Amino acid sequence: MPTRRTALSLIVGTGATLALGAPAALARPAAGSRPFGRYGSPARRHDPGTLYVDAHGRGDHTDVQSAVDAASGTGRTIVIAAGVHRATVVVDAAHRDLTLIGASADARDTVLVYGNAAGTPRPDGTGTLGTSGSASVTIGAEGFTARDLTFANDWLRSDNPEYSGTQAVAVKVQGDRSAFHGCRFLGHQDTLYADSSSLAVFARQYYRDCYVEGDVDFVFGRASAVYDRCHFRGLVRPDLAAAPHGFVFAPSTAGAGSHGFLVLRSRVTSTAPDGYYKLARPWVPSSDPTARPMLTVRESRLGAGIDATAPYATMAAGHPWQEQRFAEHRNTGPGARITVPANRPQLSASEARAHTPARWLGDWRPLG
Fold first, then answer.
1. What are 112's strand-pairing partners?
2. Mean pLDDT of the chain
3. Where along the chain is the active site annotated (predicted)?
4. What is the dihedral of CA 243, 248, 249, 250, to 10 degrees?
5. Strand 40-41 to strand 44-45: parallel, antiparallel, or no bridges (unpaired)?
6. Is 5 a residue whose pLDDT tops 50?
7. Which listed site, 89, 95, 171, 339, has its alpha carbon 20 to 30 Å from 51?
8. Which of 294, 288, 284 lies closest to 226 in space, CA to CA?
9. How far is CA 56 from CA 31, 131, 266, in A?
10. The pTM is what?
């Protein structure tokens, strides 16, 4: 069986042929190629606010963080040439309305990746990074948009058996009005952290035509997030002999928040044996003991990997899933079979009218 890094190197696209372990792992391209495709170039900018990243020096910057740091003001765009860009990236709150674009229009070709975990020691020796600190990419700005990019964390449990902190975030998103179109999120535990900047902030996020894979709680956080036409894939756990292998969603919606995770027109699959995945469990963090996690999954196909008899689990004994805000509506597939009605709360047609992207996103309409 290939290692995680080998597997990642095989799926990033034909443009990246070397393992993710090498920085900017692309062979030097032939002269005359267009690394930024239809998005112009430094010589022919479509907009004066656009910056270009290419590891081979054909852009304004050779790494993503340098381009982010240089993108002062609001409403800037950064086009990233195909390749495996191995470094952490932080988009702080000052970079409002920033857009990152993968130049090839295929998310597999442009990969932002690093390999930290919650248990990774801090460089200064003052403990470990923690879950948030493990993120390959951290986004704190409002109005952030990403298109055609892969966000990955390739840290492996098997390489680090001594670690107890195995959370390894690919991207942490905190800003309101954050949108991802045609993006991929790759990891194991805690892949996609859809969060907000504080307990008092209700950050709206929109994910359209995206792919997310992982195992334990691999889509989690307190954001008011819509996942529209997305694919969620639970990975097999060779280190476990029995079910469950993991949990797809772990919302931590604030008690005062009226909207948590909304999943619609999507699909959930798994490489694990049938019934080895739970659809969700509620996360009530110690920092917010009044959280009331909310998840609605509607009009989506749930594959055989989901435990249809008991699709939900409780993370902490004091916060049973039955006391949270979990519901479904008109799902299909073997993982959506209702065998024990008490274990699968269903919305009525009238209730479902309140569980829509328009209700979740309010006056914000993400561009398609």
1. 85, 151
2. 92
3. 217
4. 40
5. antiparallel
6. no
7. 171
8. 294
9. 12, 32, 38
10. 0.93
Number of domains in the chain: 1
Q: What does the pLDDT look like over 140-192, one tens digit per residue?
A: 999 999 999 999 999 999 999 999 999 999 999 999 999 999 999 999 999 99
Q: In the block, which residue shows the tokens 């932080």?
A: 90
- Per the listing, tokens 């990403």 go with 146
Task: Yes or no: say if 224 and 204 are a contact pair by the CB < 8 Å rule.
Answer: yes
- φ and ψ at residue 67, rounded to 5 degrees: -65, -40
Q: Alpha carbon of 274 to those of 155, 178, 219, 277, 300: distances in Å?
A: 26, 34, 20, 8, 18
Task: Answer for the pair 153, 115: CB distance below 8 angstroms, yes or no.
Answer: yes
Taking the C-alpha atoms of residue 158 and residue 12, their distance in angstroms, rounded to an integer, is 22
Task: Identify the burial level of 227 via C-beta atoms within 10 angstroms of its C-beta, where 0-12 means exposed, 13-18 middle and 19 or more buried.
Answer: buried
Contact 61/24 with Cβ under 8 angstroms?
Answer: no
Exactly one of 217, 239, 274, 307 is catalytic; name it.
217
Does residue 328 belong to any structural domain of this protein? yes
The domain spanning residue 334 has which CATH number? 2.160.20.10
**Active-site annotation holds for 159:** no
Residue 366 within any structural domain of the chain:
no
Domain that holds residue 232: 4-361
DSSP per residue over 241-284, as a string? SSS--EEEEEE---TT-S--EEEES-EEEESSPTT-EEEE----
**Domain-embedded: residue 368:** no
Residue 81 near residue 61 (C-beta atoms within 8 A): no
Measure Cα distances from 330 to 149, 339, 348 in Å.
Answer: 31, 15, 10
Non-local CB neighbours of 291 within 8 Å, separated by 6+ positions: 222, 252, 253, 254, 255, 282, 283, 284, 285
* Spatial CA neighbour of 24 closest among 70, 74, 71, 80: 80
268, part of any domain: yes
Report which DSSP code applies to 307. -
The average pLDDT across 28-39 equals 73
